[in-house]
Design goal:
- There is one protein chain.
- It contains 17 helices and 16 strands.
- It has 666 residues and is α+β, with helices and mostly antiparallel strands.
- The strands form three sheets. Strands 6, 7, 8, 9, 10, 11, 12 and 13 form an eight-stranded mixed β-sheet that branches. A five-stranded antiparallel β-sheet has the order 1-2-3-4-5, with no helix packed on it. The protein has a three-stranded antiparallel β-sheet with strand order 14-15-16, with no helix packed on it.
- A hairpin with a 2-residue loop joins strand 9 and strand 10.
- It is globular and about 75 Å long.
- The N and C termini lie far apart (56 Å).
- About 17% of the residues have low confidence.
Length: 666
């Protein structure tokens, strides 16, 4: 397959594809924000993010669009963007060098494969000079994610196509075969951290799983390598099981639900479709998943042509934990990748028949990566049971929280909107001395923790507070899954992690944060001072039925004598405040969490319930007039699917039966 050769006879047909329309809108948006010196200005941050890769991917898009319209204005815009990037000092582009390398190589290969030798000589010469002197930032000992290594493997392969140097080919195969492929769990998910191969503790950020799969399949197409093709298809198969009916898929890990993950996944499926020789069920299932993802990002289109980089449309405030993302950068990357996807339609010419393949499995547990998926005609949901937050690279980052609902659908409707959190409770500096102290504490003692990784904002997770410490769930240690008729019961046990909020440790952390640059030794992660393992065990039981979900939490000390059941947290500030740990054994209340979605209810109070991805209204109900001692002792929280109406006695009785069944299971 001549990947870089454009079939000009198909260009008019390709312009009608949805991915092309999205890419053209994004390119025009960026072109309208291109300065005279070629830089891409980002109006959301009022600057050009020069350390990022907007310029080179915009340049790649301009090169490809020239072949769609045969208009030199696209090449001119691309050339100015490349000139701006190449005029920078190399130390100013060091963090994203490998992204730039990839885009420059792709642009050069499209130019030399589709133009005459004398055409665009200046641009070709400029790119070729950069290719000959390319350096790579990412190494096996550098701190970037494993997805960077996958990207570097491809850049060496692309450079080999240009310069024919054996060293590039050898490096490409070494990185791909000896490292990238060995970062894939047995269940199919690629982990992005750490560097160690075959690491059972790897962190599976779904966005970067999609990127690695795309690079693996691109490698397979360029080399005709069967091993990478098999690994890539395995990664796509398991990713498809995580895609919701709404097309949402990247609800776990860094770059949470970002445009970046979606375009990489669509790219991966498009590459796979080109390699499938038969017009079979696998081909059509991949088409279904690809179209769901494409539909999801299409819904994020703005009137000016750019796409929202996170689905909550809060780009001006850069809400969420992934505030390092830029609208200009992700749109430039997205436009280029979508154009490449569109060009792959040249080879994917199979006629698609009507197909709606659904898995027959009610529940799927990916033991290595930790994902548990439950699918039914009623509820569809996903959790990560393993968790990847305990004193690791991302600490207790809520994007990696365990035991929280990652998505929740009922009869195809998404009940948890995709809203990455931002901490709206940051303390502002005031005139009172106490306000100054609190401001100092907020910005230094808890810097990069409360400000960006607040465990209180990770919903569905028990949270404890004592006089000097706060406790959140750590990594799960024991996981058991039981099937009984329509019920699936998950039992997870582990230990809490203690965060010190008062005393010498926060003060020491504060000092290190203030003086980090002036200290005579390197301190890479001063926040680690605030964390330590605790002796407090937790047990969570989750009972899932096609009509409801029920959570039961229990906490105990090592001697198993002090036990306290906890309610699920349903708002950012909700917490179980315990003044002294000795009170664990005497608190009498026991709570559960139930979602009988089929039933109409009376509303006793309404609030917001938080998940790791969004918020939804919740309704508190204490069922009455049911002859059961059980129901007189417990309060339940119910999320209805439809509008809330009167809760009839018949409905109350039905809910009561559910609750009795749940208590038997738990």
């Amino acid at each position: 397959m001549e990947l870089f050769v454009i079939n000009h006879e198909l260009v008019k047909e390709l312009r009608n594809k949805q991915e092309f329309k999205l890419a053209l809108g994004m390119f025009n948006y960026l072109k309208n924000n291109q300065l005279e010196n070629g830089a891409i200005f980002d109006p959301f941050v009022s600057k050009q993010p020069w350390r990022q890769y907007a310029h080179t991917f915009f340049g790649l898009s301009g090169v490809i669009l020239y072949f769609y319209f045969n208009e030199c204005s696209y090449i001119e815009s691309a050339e100015r963007a490349f000139e701006f990037y190449l005029s920078m000092e190399k130390d100013k582009r060091i963090k994203t060098t490998d992204f730039h390398n990839w885009a420059i190589l792709m642009a050069y290969l499209f130019l030399i494969e589709n133009t005459k030798e004398e055409e665009f000589e200046k641009l070709k010469a400029m790119l070729l000079l950069e290719i000959k002197t390319m350096t790579h930032t990412v190494t096996m000992s550098s701190g970037q994610g494993n997805n960077f290594i996958a990207l570097r493997s491809i850049t060496h392969l692309l450079r080999y196509r240009v310069l024919k140097q054996d060293a590039d080919l050898e490096e490409s195969f070494d990185l791909m075969k000896n490292y990238v492929l060995k970062w894939q769990f047995n269940d199919g998910i690629f982990y992005d951290f750490p560097r160690q191969i075959n690491d059972k503790e790897g962190i599976p950020s779904l966005t970067y799983h999609a990127k690695i799969v795309a690079m693996v399949l691109l490698f397979s197409i360029l080399t005709n390598d069967g091993e990478t093709k098999k690994a890539g298809f395995k990664g796509l198969d398991i990713l498809g099981k995580l895609i919701t009916t709404q097309g949402e898929a990247f609800f776990y890990g860094r770059s949470n639900n970002a445009l970046y993950g979606y375009v990489n996944a669509i790219f991966a499926y498009a590459l796979a479709l080109c390699m499938l020789e038969d017009n079979n069920d696998v081909f059509h299932q991949y088409c279904v998943w690809k179209e769901r993802l494409l539909g999801f990002i299409t819904n994020q289109t703005c009137s000016d042509g750019h796409l929202h980089i996170i689905p909550n449309k809060m780009e001006e405030s850069r809400a969420g934990y992934d505030s390092y993302m830029y609208v200009s950068v992700y749109n430039a990357h997205g436009a280029a990748i979508l154009l490449l996807i569109n060009l792959l339609n040249q080879w994917d010419r199979k006629k698609i028949y009507s197909c709606n393949i659904l898995t027959t499995e009610k529940s799927i547990y990916l033991k290595d990566s930790g994902f548990f998926i439950f699918k039914s005609d009623g509820i569809c949901t996903c959790l990560n049971l393993k968790g990847h937050t305990l004193l690791k690279k991302y600490f207790m980052d809520p994007r990696f929280s365990s035991l929280t609902l990652l998505f929740l659908e009922y009869q195809g409707k998404d009940l948890l909107p995709t809203i990455p959190f931002t901490d709206n409770e940051r303390i502002q500096l005031g005139r009172k001395p106490a306000a100054i102290v609190n401001y100092f504490k907020d910005n230094y003692c808890y810097k990069h923790y409360y400000r960006n990784h607040n465990p209180r904002l990770s919903g569905f997770v028990p949270f404890l507070q004592t006089k000097n410490a706060e406790y959140v769930l750590g990594e799960s240690e024991n996981i058991e899954i039981r099937e009984s008729g329509e019920y699936t019961t998950i039992v997870v046990q582990g230990k809490f992690v203690e965060l010190n909020v008062r005393g010498m440790k926060p003060l020491l952390n504060c000092f290190i944060e203030l003086w980090n640059e002036n200290l005579p030794f390197q301190v890479s992660s001063p926040q680690r001072l605030l964390y330590e393992n605790s002796s407090i065990n937790f047990e969570r039981r989750i009972i899932i039925h096609p009509s409801f979900i029920h959570f039961v939490d229990r906490i105990c000390s090592d001697d198993d004598k002090m036990i306290i059941p906890l309610t699920i947290r349903v708002s950012g500030n909700a917490q179980n405040y315990i003044k002294d740990m000795n009170f664990f054994s005497v608190l009498p209340s026991k709570y559960g969490f139930c979602i009988p979605l089929k039933h109409e209810i009376d509303v006793s109070s309404v609030g917001k319930m938080l998940s790791s991805k969004g918020a939804v209204d919740y309704y508190k109900v204490v069922p009455v007039n049911i002859k059961s001692k059980l129901l007189q002792e417990y309060e339940y929280t119910i999320i209805p699917f439809e509008d809330v109406n009167n809760f009839t006695p018949e409905k109350r009785e039905m809910v009561g039966r559910y609750i009795v069944e749940i208590e038997k299971l738990s």
